[in-house]
What we know:
The chain has helices spanning 18-33, 63-70, 73-82; strands at 5-11, 38-46, 53-60, 91-96. It is of the alpha+beta class. A four-stranded antiparallel beta sheet has the order 2-3-1-4.
Amino acid sequence: MSEPVMVFASFRPKKGTEKTVEQILRGMVRPTRDEPGNLVYDLYEQTNVGHVAFHLFEKYVDGPALEAHRESDHYKQYRATILKHLDEPISVCVLSAVDVV
């Protein structure tokens, strides 16, 4: 049986685009949560670092579910629009469980 896959993605908006980035990311929440292979898709905001950053915590039933997410229309649309609003590339960590409950 395949193991669940966790993804941690971070976004640092350009100054003045924070609300736009938040809106783009919020637009991903419902359609991604509705994907059959998605278990968790939670959006967080960080403001204690001198700038605004957003973080997504994602969990999928397995690797193929993550790949299906990346092939979805909403994912492709978000990738096509968000990059120009960021100060740096999206930081993405794909994680496999070592010792979790």
